[in-house]
Design goal:
single chain, alpha+beta, Alpha-Beta Plaits, 4-stranded antiparallel beta sheet, 10 helices, 4 strands, 10% strand, cell membrane
């Protein structure tokens, strides 16, 4: 039991270190040289760095640690400790790359910097999240506000990001910078989603049919062995049955054809399988 716990902890800290390195490289290689911003407190730290003589790492610690003290009871001790470690490590790594190693810009083009900087930040944040940690205080603020109001955490983070990005207009008066920063944040969100949920090539299908037994047999034979039959009641109090299955996109047309052959009155509801856990996934 202890060995499994230690193995899990080591794995989580490996994810955190890996994520912090990507975050730091994204900031130093792409964002700082091209005066771009990202979301959250990292974006605020970049903004303050551009208008002051202090480093990005300094501002990340200065912004985040007070927020951690305020919100520690909403995070839990373990998560708070990991978040402190993550923030300090990111700050030190950014300053080490920028001030000590003096890494040269990977590219000096705002379009490419917005795209690849967003990818690097997204990869970094995704691995930090996989390590059961957080890289910024906007998450803390979101949790505190959500616990006190009916506002959702995602809405709080969106508001914070919007304030940070658009406040740069007051300082730089550069609309291109704001737009490229927004593009970068969007790419970051996509990168996080792809890493955390995967790129699933599957669909969720709800099949409503009067030929449940026949369709169940054909599905097991030609589509796959897993599925669930759900019983329900229609709007006119008639008994209804529905088959719920998850299938690969390549088998979707086969399922459509089987349904047409067996029950022309049946209908399919098809949706994305955004995330799957269990049975090898």
């Amino acid at each position: 039991m202890i060995e499994k716990y230690l193995e899990g902890e080591i794995k989580e800290y490996f994810f955190i270190v890996f994520g912090c390195l990507f975050l730091a490289l994204g900031v130093v290689w792409f964002f700082i040289p091209n005066a771009l911003l990202t979301g959250g407190t990292a974006g605020l730290a970049l903004l303050l760095h551009y208008i002051s003589s202090f480093s990005v790492g300094f501002w990340m610690v200065a912004i985040n640690l007070p927020l951690l003290v305020i919100g520690i009871k909403y995070l839990g001790k373990k998560f708070a400790i990991k978040t402190v470690i993550t923030i300090i490590f990111i700050s030190l790594t950014i300053d080490f790359f920028a001030e000590v190693l003096k890494l040269q810009p990977f590219v000096e083009d705002r379009v490419l910097a917005a795209i690849f900087g967003g990818i690097f930040i997204g990869i970094g944040l995704a691995f930090v999240i996989k390590g059961n940690s957080s890289a910024g205080g906007s998450t803390i603020v979101a949790r505190v506000v959500a616990s006190k109001t009916e506002i959702k955490p995602a809405q709080v983070i969106l508001i914070i990001d919007s304030i940070i990005i658009f406040s740069s207009l007051l300082i730089f008066k550069d609309t291109q910078q704001v737009l490229y920063s927004i593009v970068s944040i969007y790419i970051t969100v996509i990168a996080i989603d792809k890493i955390l949920t995967g790129n699933l090539n599957k669909k969720v299908v709800h099949l409503v049919t009067n030929e449940v037994e026949t369709m169940s047999k054909l599905i097991k034979e030609k589509i796959g062995p897993y599925g669930t039959i759900i019983s329900g009641v229609g709007l006119y109090n008639e008994d209804k049955k529905m088959i719920l299955i998850v299938i690969e996109v390549t088998k979707l047309q086969l399922l459509r054809q089987l349904v047409k052959e067996v029950d022309k009155d049946a209908f399919l509801i098809i949706s994305e399988a955004n995330e799957m856990l269990g049975r090898g996934n």
